[in-house]
Amino acid sequence: MAMKLYLDTANVAEIRELSWLVDGVTTNPSLVAREKRPFRDVLQEICAIVAGPVSAEVVALDRDGMVREARELAEVAANVVVKIPMTEAGMQAVQLLSREGVHTNVTLVFSANQALLAAKCGATYVSPFVGRIDDAGGDGMALVEEILTVYDPYDFPTEIIVASVRHPGHVLQAALLGAHIATVPYDVLKKLFGHPLTDAGIARFLKDWQQIPQG
Ligand code: E4P
């Protein structure tokens, strides 16, 4: 099976345009804030456009608050995945929610040990933030490779979402490593279609075609 592509946005127009291609959507509080609309409305609309998983993040920091918010979000639509930050309280919430059958995406993952704990607690997805690691002078894709290695011998069902993608190279590296999913901002996803030699090739074919005498 090919690597799945999610769109990393809360913008309904972007999601509508690329809904034919993407397998799911991830949002976060910063992306939702850009839309200047009530979160629930935005989430409902996204879930109606995309059949695949749609991640929506809790903002509570305590276990019970996260579980409460998660249950409310999960009621919005059947394809909601609740994003929980990688903290000790967060992992307690993930454990409870996974027992209730609520799908979770553990976010803000910056180490393989964090990913190991998330999987052990029953997370459906885990999101290493590769771009933020690169921004801080580290190697984000090395973390993805490490998580894949750590998960492999134990057959964890937790899927890895390569997140905080900054450029097409991140998408290619994610696929080369065999990551399950890459969640990609709109601009980066659009860039995946293009290549200057494709444009030049089309232009040359059209020019040559015009030389053919009309029959
Ligand atoms: C992942 O689910 C997050 O929404 C996202 O990838 C964060 O990326 P950023 O570092 O560009 O904010």
- Could you say what the CATH topology is called? TIM Barrel
Number of helices: 11
Quaternary organization:
single chain
| Strand residues, percent | 15-25%
Termini separation: 47 Å
Biggest sheet layout: 8 strands, parallel, barrel
CATH architecture: Alpha-Beta Barrel
Query: Helices and strands: which structural class?
Result: alpha/beta
Q: Quick one: CATH class?
A: Alpha Beta
The distinct bound ligands, ions and cofactors come out as: erythose-4-phosphate
- CA radius of gyration is 20 Å
Question: Can you say what the CATH homologous superfamily is?
Answer: Aldolase class I
Features:
single chain; eight-stranded parallel beta barrel; binds erythose-4-phosphate; 17% strand; 215 residues; 51% helix; globular; alpha/beta; TIM Barrel; 11 helices
Please give a structural write-up.
With 215 residues, the protein is α/β, with parallel strands linked by helices. It has one domain: TIM Barrel. The chain is 51% helix and 17% strand. The chain has eleven helices and eight strands. The chain has helices at 12-18, 29-35, 39-49, 63-76, 88-100, 112-120, 130-135, 140-151, 168-177, 186-191, 196-210, and strands spanning 4-8, 24-26, 54-57, 80-85, 104-109, 125-128, 159-162, 181-184. An eight-stranded parallel β-barrel has the order 1-2-3-4-5-6-7-8, surrounded by six helices. Helix 4 links the parallel strand 3 (54-57) and strand 4 (80-85). Helix 4 crosses helix 5 and helix 8 runs parallel beside helix 9. The longest helix is centred in the last third of the chain and has 15 residues, at 196-210. The chain is globular. The termini are far apart. 38% of the residues are buried. The mean pLDDT is 97. The site of erythose-4-phosphate has 11 residues, from helix 7.
